[in-house]
Amino acid sequence: MSRKSVTRASAPVLPLAGAVALVTGGSRGIGRAIAQRLASLGASVALCARDAQALAAVEAELKKSAAEVYAHTADITQATEVAALVRATEKTLGPVTLLVNNAGIGLFGPAHEKTEADWDRVLATNLKGVFLVSRAIIPSMIRGGKGDIINISSLAGRNAFAGGGIYCASKWGLQGLSACMAEDLRDHGIRVSVVCPGSVATGFSGRGPKDPSKALSADDVAHAVAMLATQSPQSFISEVQLRPLRKA
Question: What angle (nearest 5°) sits at the alpha carbon of residue 24, between those of residues 19 and 28?
Answer without folding.
Answer: 110
